[in-house]
Specification:
- The protein is globular and about 35 Å long.
- The chain has strands spanning about 5-10, 15-20, 25-30, 30-35, 40-45, 50-60, 65-75, 80-90, 90-95, 100-105.
- The protein has one domain.
- By secondary structure, it is mostly beta strands.
- Strands 1, 2, 3, 4, 5, 6, 7, 8, 9 and 10 form a ten-stranded parallel β-sheet that branches.
């Protein structure tokens, strides 16, 4: 379901450093360092490592991330994920088995 809408893929074993922008859904399976900006959905897969300043519509974290994240819609930290840093979003969901070390700020939802 998600993969049919994916606009960016960073495959396992790949490394990218810099600034990434995208529309729709971006799926990261490798390593990324830098800045990510989009109103779309960022999926960080299990095994991926991301160190970045991130501004997205939605974040789905399954892998490892050290970041400052602002999400305009929601953030999901799924079982097995590790997050270190700061989160700001109107909705934050942390599944049992996810690691969250840092701070979170609840934004007002934008309507």
């Amino acid at each position: 379901m998600e993969s049919s809408n994916t606009t960016v893929i960073l495959t396992r074993g790949a490394f990218f450093e810099g600034r990434m922008t995208f529309e729709g859904v971006a799926r990261l399976c490798g390593r990324f360092k830098g800045e990510i900006v989009s109103q779309g959905t960022l999926i960080v897969e299990a095994g991926a490592r991301v160190e970045a300043r991130v501004s997205v519509g939605e974040l789905i974290l399954k892998g490892w991330m050290k970041a400052e994240v602002v999400a305009s819609r929601k953030i999901n930290l799924l079982k097995g994920s590790e997050f270190y840093g700061g989160l700001s979003s109107p909705q934050l969901h942390v599944e049992e088995g996810a690691l969250f070390e840092g701070a979170s700020v609840k934004q007002k939802a934008a309507f």
